[in-house]
Amino acid sequence: MPALDFASANVGGAVDRFELVFIIDLYWHVKQLLRNGQRIASPPFKAGGCSWSFHYYPNGISSSCKDYISFFVALDSGVSEPIKAWSRFSLLDPAGEPVPGHSVYTDVREHSEIGASHGCDLFIRKKFLEASAHLVDGCFTVGWEICVERATPPHHLLDTDVTFEVGGEAFSAHRSVLAARSPVLEAELFFSAAREGATAGDCIRIDGMLPQVFESLLHFVYTDSLPEMTDETEESMMAEHLLVAADRFDLQGLKLICEEILCRDINEDTVAKILRFAVQHQCRLLRDACIEFLEDPPVLQAVVANDDDLLELVAKTCPVLLKELWDYDEDMQDELALCF
Fold it and tell me: Which residue ranges does the record assign to the BTB domain (predicted)?
C-alpha cells in the first residue's frame, strides 16, 4: 500500500474518539494501476478497542463515483457485541490544516462482524485534487477521525441531567450522550458552562429553533434515525430545518440524511432555491445533485429564465455549465459573457 503515516490519540469520553493522519503517495501510479472498484487496504490498526483496516479506492468504489476518490474503514476483528462507529475524512493542505469544504462525515453504522464497514464514496473529485496545490509530488494527506460507541442503556432508562428550553418548551437529555455526538454541544455543556459557573440541572436556552425541530434532533441523537413522517411536504420542510440545526450543532450524520431527503425534491421549480441553500450550508452532496440536474442545457436555460440571479451562482459553483449553455444558446452569450 502507499505509505500511510499516522499518529493516534484517544480523547476519551462516552465515545472513544481517535484521530489519524494518512499520507498517501504514488497517486498517479496507483490511479493507473487500479480500476474502478479496486482498493488498497492498510495493515490492521487499533482504534476504540477494535482492529480496523483503512481502504483507499483511487478510482472510486463503484461506477457511480468513478470520478471520485473513495475512503472506507472496515472492522478487522470480532466484537462481543455490536458497536456503532462513524468517521470524518478531511483533505489536509500542506500545512496539515483541513481544506475548507472538503471534510466529509459518514453516517452512523452498526458493526457486528468482521468486514463491516463505513466510509465515503464521494470523498473528493479526482480532477479537483489533481489541479490543486494539495497534491505534491504525487502525495496528498487525509485526516481521519473515528468515533466508536459501544452499546449503552436506552436513554429513557437513565436519569437525565440537563434541560433545554426551546420555544417555550422544555426537553430533558443526558450530557454525556449529547457531548459524544456533537462537539458544539460538548463545548456548550461543559466548557462554556464551567466558565459561567453553571451547574447540573440548569436550563440551557436554545434560540432560533422550533421546538419540534429540536425534538427531532434529539430523536436522531439517541436513535440515529428521524421520526416517521407520512406527508412528503412535511418531511421536506422538516429536513430543511433539521439541516440548519445539524449544521449549527455539527451533527454531520443528521446533515447527510437531510441532504438525501432534499435531493429527492430537486426539480425545475426548486433547484435554484435548493442550490443556494446547499452552498450556504456547505452541503456537497446536495450541491452536486443540483449541478447534475442542471447539466442539461435546456433545463439550465429554463431555470435561468425564471431566476436572473442563478447565473452568478452557477458561475461560482460550476462554471463549466455556463460554457455548455454558451454553446447551446447563442442568444444568451452576451448575458453569459458578464459571468466569465
Answer: 160-230
Is the separation of the CB atoms in 54 and 73 below 8 Å?
yes
What are 167's three cell numbers?
A: 420555544
Are 5 and 123 contacting, i.e. CB atoms less than 8 angstroms apart? Answer: no
Q: Please write the tens of the pLDDT for every residue from 303-339.
A: 777 777 777 777 776 666 656 554 545 555 455 444 5
Q: 89: helix, coil or strand?
A: strand
What residues does each domain of the chain span? 16-150, 155-261, 266-337
- C-alpha pair distances (Å), 176 with each of 67, 157, 159, 161, 305: 40, 14, 12, 9, 51
Residue with cell 477494535: 50
For the entire predicted model, the pTM comes to: 0.52
Task: Give residue 332's Cα distance to chain centre.
Answer: 36
List 84's β-bridge partners, or say none.
110, 149
Q: 16-150, which class in CATH? A: mainly beta
Residue with cell 461506477: 63
169/211 Cα distance (integer angstroms) = 7
Cα separation of 49 and 127, whole Å?
Answer: 37
The whole-number average pLDDT for the span 30-53 is: 88
Decide yes or no: CATH 2.120.10.30 for domain 155-261. no
140-150/16-24 β-pairing? antiparallel
Maximum separation of any 2 CA atoms in the chain, in Å: 68
Q: How far apart are CA 19 and CA 11, in angstroms?
A: 9
Q: Which of 166, 176, 241 is nearest to 204 (CA)?
A: 166
